């Protein structure tokens, strides 16, 4: 089997990519702060912010394709640690793009819908970026630099993702489920809109990009809704009639990073290539039927 290097294998997206593709690829996954073991995956410890370690990984693995998901993905953390997170969110993807370009290795770099300001949705790939927080700024800069270093790379802007986060990562989906099970209060925004995407659909879109895309590609779900609406949908699928959900506005919760009102993605370009996420209800039902609670 061909060798696939997946960075951030213990993260939400990286773990889902590794577990979904391990029967078709010989997968090498990098980890750093959250070491894990995954059956059928070659796990490598590496600090990708250090170029020597990154180059060592490439020399040892000799990958035939790369999917770069590793990132400091918390907007609040990035806002408070701009210099530190710049190394992993900007410098590392550019170095990876350079290494892939040297050998013409297919590359997918995963970015975010938070490169937009949320004022003019839905966003196509041609829409101008205008991030409002440090995380969005870093990802927008990384997109530009990656494509400058390697125009054949695919840059996938991912929407808010949900599903099984694996053994080491966190997700808003898991937070909701835990709160519902424990009957704890959970505050959910009514004025923050996204196009949520299941982990299964995200993986499908990324491998589609690896095969067919050079440049930008949006990967969002089939529907636009708020976190509060998503919570109500999840309750309905679970058959829970009473839960301690508190609707709130972004301004009600103090956070270091500024929030965006609506970064819904237009994924019609991906759809034309065969990207077919199910409806949100179908996606949630599928996850629950698989036994993830």
Strand tally: 13
Indicate the overall shape: globular
Q: Between the first and last Cα atoms, what is the distance in angstroms?
A: 33 Å
Domains (count): 2
Structural class: alpha/beta
Q: Report helical residue fraction.
A: 25-40%
Order of helices and strands: EHEEHEHHEHEEHEEEHEEHEHH
Descriptors for this entry?
Rossmann fold; seven-stranded parallel beta sheet; alpha/beta; 293 residues; 13 strands; 10 helices; two-stranded parallel ribbon; UDP-galactose 4-epimerase, domain 1
Structural write-up:
The structure is a single chain. By secondary structure, this protein is an alpha/beta fold. The protein has two domains: 3-161 and 196-219, Rossmann fold (3-Layer(aba) Sandwich), CATH 3.40.50; 170-195 and 225-263 and 279-289, UDP-galactose 4-epimerase, domain 1 (Alpha-Beta Complex), CATH 3.90.25.10. It contains ten helices and 13 strands. The strands form four sheets. It has a seven-stranded parallel sheet, with helices on both faces. A two-stranded parallel ribbon has the order 7-10. It is globular. It starts with a strand and ends with a helix. The model has no long low-confidence stretch (mean pLDDT 95).
How do you describe this structure in short?
The chain has 293 residues and is an alpha/beta fold.
Write the layout of secondary structure elements.
Elements: E1 3-7, H1 12-21, E2 26-31, E3 42-45, H2 51-61, E4 65-68, H3 75-80, H4 82-103, E5 107-112, H5 134-149, E6 154-158, E7 161-162, H6 172-181, E8 186-189, E9 193-194, E10 197-198, H7 199-212, E11 215-219, E12 225-226, H8 227-238, E13 245-248, H9 268-272, H10 280-289
Parallel strand pairs: 1-2, 1-4, 2-3, 4-5, 5-6, 6-11, 7-10, 8-13
Antiparallel strand pairs: 9-12
Helix pairs in contact: 1-7, 2-4, 4-5, 8-10
């Amino acid at each position: 089997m061909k060798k696939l290097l997946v960075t951030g294998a213990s993260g939400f997206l990286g773990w889902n990519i590794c577990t979904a593709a391990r029967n078709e690829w010989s997968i090498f996954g990098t980890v750093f702060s959250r070491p894990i073991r995954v059956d059928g995956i070659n796990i490598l410890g590496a600090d990708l912010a250090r170029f020597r370690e990154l180059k060592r990984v490439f020399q040892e693995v000799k990958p035939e394709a790369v999917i770069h998901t590793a990132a400091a993905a918390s907007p609040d953390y990035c806002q408070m640690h701009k210099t530190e997170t710049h190394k992993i969110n900007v410098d590392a993807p550019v170095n990876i793009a350079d290494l892939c370009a040297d050998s013409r290795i297919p590359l997918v770099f995963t970015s975010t819908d938070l490169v937009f300001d949320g004022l003019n949705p839905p966003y196509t790939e041609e829409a101008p970026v205008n991030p409002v927080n440090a995380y969005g700024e870093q990802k927008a800069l990384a997109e530009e630099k990656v494509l400058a270093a390697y125009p054949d790379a695919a840059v996938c802007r991912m929407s808010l993702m949900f599903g099984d986060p694996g053994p080491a990562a966190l997700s808003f989906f898991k937070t909701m489920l835990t709160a519902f099970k424990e009957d704890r209060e959970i505050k959910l925004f009514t004025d923050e809109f996204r196009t949520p995407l299941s982990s299964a659909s995200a993986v499908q879109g990324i491998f589609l990009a690896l095969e067919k895309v050079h440049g930008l590609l949006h990967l969002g779900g089939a529907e636009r809704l708020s976190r509060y609406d998503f919570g109500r949908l999840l309750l309905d699928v679970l058959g829970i009639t009473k839960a301690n959900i508190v609707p709130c506005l972004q301004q009600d919760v103090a956070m270091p990073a500024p929030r965006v009102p609506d970064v819904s993605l237009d994924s019609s370009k991906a759809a034309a290539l065969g990207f077919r996420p199910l409806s949100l209800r179908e996606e949630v039902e599928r996850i629950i039927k698989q036994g993830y609670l």
